[in-house]
Specification:
This protein is α/β, with parallel strands linked by helices. It folds into 2 domains: 299 residues, Metallo-dependent phosphatases (Purple Acid Phosphatase, chain A, domain 2, 4-Layer Sandwich); 210 residues, Alpha-Beta Complex (5'-nucleotidase,  domain 2), CATH 3.90.780. It is built from 14 helices and 28 strands. The protein has a 6-stranded mixed beta sheet with strand order 4-3-2-1-13-14, with helices on one face. Strands 6-7-9-10-12-11 form a 6-stranded mixed beta sheet, covered by helices on one side.
C-alpha cells in the first residue's frame, strides 16, 4: 500500500543545462539541469515499493543562458533541446514561467514540442493556449491513491511581457483560480499538490507584507486563505525556501538547478496526509547521469559562437571591480549600454541597471561571451515620453536604493530582501543629476538638468530604457506602456553586438554626469 509521496521540483533553471556559467569556454560550475536531473533520477530509482516519487518542472526553463540565446537566434537549431532532456529526467508535469514567453509563442511551441509530460496552466485563458498549456491539472493514480497536481503561473506576466509575445492569452489571479477549482479537486483526489510559478509576498513567519500586493506573488495569501492544499511548490523569486505555512509544506529551490525541492507526504490507510516534511537537496556534488546526458554537439556550437571576436575597446576600463562603486559613481560599461539604447531608439537620454553583483563588465578584447554574460535578458530598447515630474519621481525611486549606516553608504535592504532586486536601480546618461542620501527618501534629488538647463515639472522628455522598466517594472509606476513612442526590433544584447561592430575600436568613457552625497 502506498504510504509516502515524494514531490521533487526544479524551478528557474533559466537554460543552464551543463555545469558551466559560460564565463569562459572551459569553466565548470556546480549547477545546471543535468545535475538536478541526475539527482531526481537517482531518487526515483531508489524509491521503495510503498513510495511514489513525482517530479515537477516549475517554470522559467527555456530562457536565461547563452545556450537559450543561441537557440532563439538560430531558428535552424534544435529549439526543443531542453525539453528532450526534461523528458528523459521523468517529470510528471511542467509549469509555464513568466520568462517562457520572452521569445514569443512560436518559439515556446517549438521549445516545448518534444516533452512527454503535460504543461499545466489552470489560470491561463485564450485560444493561444493551444500547443502551450495542455490542461489545468494532472491526475495521477497509484496503488489506489489519487493525486492531483494543479498548475499555476504568476498572473503578472502581461505587466512585463510585450503584447506580441502573448497573443490573446489572459492570466487570472491564482487566488480566484484556486478558489474556483480546489473544492472539486479536493473531492476528486486524495492528495492535492499545487505547483505555482510564483512566490511569497509576505514574511513567512510574521505575515508582514514584503512587497506591494499584486498578482505577481500570491503564495502567502494562497496558503492562508484557501483550504484544501496538501503541498505547494513555488519559484520565480529565486529564493531557497523550505518549510510549512498554515500546516502546508512548501519549497522554492533557488535557481539554475543548484537545488531540488523535496516535499514528503506520509499517508494513513484512508489516504489522508498525516505528516509532512520539506527540504532542499543540493545538487553540487551529484555525478551526471549518462542516461540523461545529451550529445555535446550543441554545447560545442554554443561555446564556439560565444568565442567570436567583437573587436576591442580603448579608453576607460570597462571592467567592474566594485559593484557598489559603479552604482555610486556610474561606470563606462553602463554608459555603453545607455549609448546603445539611445542609438537604437533615437534619444539622448537613457537609463540602465547593473543587474547583479556577479557581472564583470568588459575586457579590452571583446567576444559574444562578454555580451551575454553581462546582459542575459532579451529585453528591447524602448523610447518613452515622460514629463520632468515623472523623471524626477523615477530618480527619487533610484535614490531610495541607498542608505547610510554608521557613516557608510549601503544598499537599502528593501532591494536585497527577501530577494535581491539590484536590477531596480538605474543609472542615467544624458542628464546631469545629484542625490543627497542624507535627506529623507523622496527628497533626495537635489540637482537635475538637461542640456545645461534645469528640468521643469511639465517639460517633456524622451528617455530610452528597456521594455521591463518602460511598463513600470521594478516599482516605477511613473512609467507605462501607454507612454512608449517606439521600440527596437532587436534585443538589447544584439543591439550591443551591432554597435560594437560599427564602432571599432569602441572609445569607452567614464561618466561625469552623476554625483552622490552621503
Amino acid at each position: 500500500m502506498l504510504k509516502k509521496i515524494k514531490i521533487l521540483s526544479t524551478s528557474d533553471v533559466h537554460g543552464f543545462i551543463y555545469p558551466t556559467d559560460y564565463s569562459s569556454p572551459d569553466k565548470t560550475t556546480p549547477l545546471g539541469l543535468l545535475k538536478a536531473g541526475s539527482l531526481i533520477s537517482r531518487i526515483k530509482d531508489q524509491s521503495q515499493p510503498d513510495e511514489l516519487v513525482l517530479a515537477v518542472e516549475n517554470g522559467d526553463l527555456i530562457q536565461g543562458s547563452p545556450l537559450t540565446s543561441y537557440l532563439a537566434d538560430h531558428p535552424q537549431s534544435d529549439q526543443s533541446f531542453l525539453t528532450k532532456i526534461t523528458s528523459k529526467i521523468g517529470y510528471q508535469a511542467g509549469i509555464l514561467g513568466n520568462h517562457e514567453f520572452n521569445f514569443g509563442l512560436e518559439f515556446l511551441r517549438h521549445a516545448e514540442s518534444q516533452r512527454n509530460y503535460p504543461l499545466l496552466g489552470a489560470n491561463l485563458h485564450g485560444h493561444d493556449r493551444t500547443g502551450i498549456s495542455d490542461q489545468p491539472y494532472q491526475i495521477i493514480e497509484e496503488q489506489g491513491v489519487k493525486i492531483v497536481i494543479l498548475g499555476l503561473t504568476t498572473a503578472f506576466v502581461p505587466n512585463w511581457e510585450a503584447p506580441k509575445n502573448l497573443g490573446d492569452l489572459q492570466f487570472e489571479s491564482i487566488l480566484s483560480t484556486a478558489a474556483r477549482l480546489l473544492p472539486s479537486l479536493r473531492s476528486l483526489a486524495d492528495v492535492v499538490i499545487v505547483a505555482y510559478h510564483g512566490g511569497f509576498e509576505a514574511d513567512l513567519t510574521t505575515g508582514q507584507a514584503t512587497e506591494p500586493a499584486t498578482t505577481e506573488n500570491e503564495g502567502y495569501r494562497l496558503l492562508t486563505s484557501i483550504p484544501g492544499i496538501d503541498a505547494l511548490i513555488t519559484g520565480h523569486q529565486h529564493r531557497k525556501l523550505a518549510g510549512h505555512l498554515n500546516g502546508v509544506p512548501y519549497t522554492q529551490p533557488g535557481l539554475h538547478g543548484t537545488y531540488v525541492g523535496e516535499i514528503e507526504l506520509t499517508l494513513d490507510q484512508a489516504h489522508h496526509v498525516v505528516s509532512s516534511t520539506s527540504q532542499l537537496l543540493p545538487t553540487a556534488n551529484e555525478p551526471l547521469d549518462p542516461n540523461i546526458m545529451p550529445s555535446s554537439a550543441l554545447e560545442d556550437q554554443v561555446q564556439g559562437w560565444l568565442s567570436q571576436s567583437l573587436g576591442e575597446h580603448v579608453g576607460a576600463s570597462m571592467r567592474i571591480a566594485d559593484p557598489l562603486t559603479a552604482r555610486q559613481h556610474g561606470h563606462p560599461y553602463l554608459t555603453f549600454v545607455n549609448q546603445v539604447q539611445m542609438d537604437a531608439v533615437d534619444t539622448d537620454i537613457a537609463a540602465t541597471a547593473l543587474f547583479n553583483d556577479e557581472l564583470n563588465g568588459f575586457p579590452t578584447k571583446l567576444t559574444l561571451r562578454d555580451i551575454f554574460n553581462n546582459y542575459p535578458y532579451p529585453n528591447l530598447a524602448v523610447a518613452e515620453l515622460v514629463t520632468g515630474r515623472e523623471l524626477r519621481q523615477a530618480l527619487e525611486q533610484c535614490a531610495s536604493f541607498f542608505q547610510i549606516n554608521c557613516g557608510q553608504l549601503q544598499i537599502n535592504p528593501k532591494f536585497c530582501e527577501p530577494k535581491p532586486q539590484l536590477f531596480n536601480y538605474d543609472l542615467y546618461t544624458g542628464i546631469n543629476y545629484e542625490f543627497d542620501i542624507r535627506k529623507p527618501i523622496g527628497h533626495r534629488v537635489t540637482y537635475l538638468t538637461y542640456h545645461e538647463k534645469a528640468v521643469t515639472e511639465e517639460q517633456q522628455l524622451i528617455v530610452a530604457m528597456n521594455n521591463y522598466r518602460a511598463i513600470g517594472g521594478g516599482n516605477y509606476p511613473m512609467f507605462a506602456s501607454s507612454k512608449i513612442q517606439r521600440q527596437s526590433q532587436k534585443t538589447i544584447p544584439n543591439l550591443m553586438i551591432d554597435y560594437l561592430k560599427n564602432h571599432q575600436p569602441y572609445q569607452a568613457q567614464s561618466p561625469h554626469n552623476f554625483s552622490l552625497k552621503f
